[in-house]
Write a structure and sequence with these properties.
Blueprint lengths: L4 H8 L2 H10 L5 H17 L11 H12 L1 H10 L11 H4 L9 H19 L11 H9 L4 H9 L7
Helix pairs in contact: 1-3, 3-4
Length: 163
């Protein structure tokens, strides 16, 4: 059963944090701010399973940064999310300076697909107004010409059985 946006907000967005986001982002339409917060929560809730580059756009990363600034609230949030552990944030520039071996294009593609598949497994099919926050989903729809229905159908299909 999919986790609804309302359930996400009820479980993870205390009223004080909702007020904080309204004060930090006063120019943002309240409905748009709510969607960005929900998409951030979805990402953070599956982030424990994601490796590689962050699969979300700067708009979602910005919400994440604001949450991190409220360190106690962020620590509490991480303790309630899947995995129940602190989710660290590192920039791609910093990560690229490390000793880790470079990922192959195939590994990067697998990670992108896995993140989107986790999204639909946990939250149901992508809604058209939310695709733009997920880089690979937006690329498939905007640049490759997939419809939202095609994207969701592809992500919801049963995984092939290994021989």
């Amino acid at each position: 059963m999919a986790i609804s946006n309302e359930c996400l907000r009820a479980a993870f967005l205390p009223p004080q944090m909702a007020c904080y986001f309204a004060k930090k982002l006063p120019a943002l339409d309240p409905a748009e701010r709510r969607i960005r917060i929900e998409e951030t929560l979805k990402f953070l809730n599956i982030a424990v399973y994601c490796r590689g580059n962050i699969p979300v756009t700067r708009d979602i990363d910005d919400i994440w940064h604001l949450w991190i600034l409220e360190t106690q609230e962020y620590e509490r949030l991480c303790g309630r999310l899947q995995g129940r552990r602190f989710i660290h944030h590192s920039s791609n520039a910093y990560t690229s300076c490390g000793d880790e071996a470079a990922w192959t294009p195939e590994q990067e593609l697998e990670e992108k697909v896995a993140a989107l598949a986790m999204y639909v497994q946990n939250y149901g099919p992508f809604e058209p107004e939310r695709i733009r926050y997920w880089k690979f989903a937006a690329w498939l729809v905007d640049d490759c010409g997939w419809s939202v229905g095609q994207l969701n159908g592809w992500l919801l299909r049963p995984a092939p059985v290994a021989a």
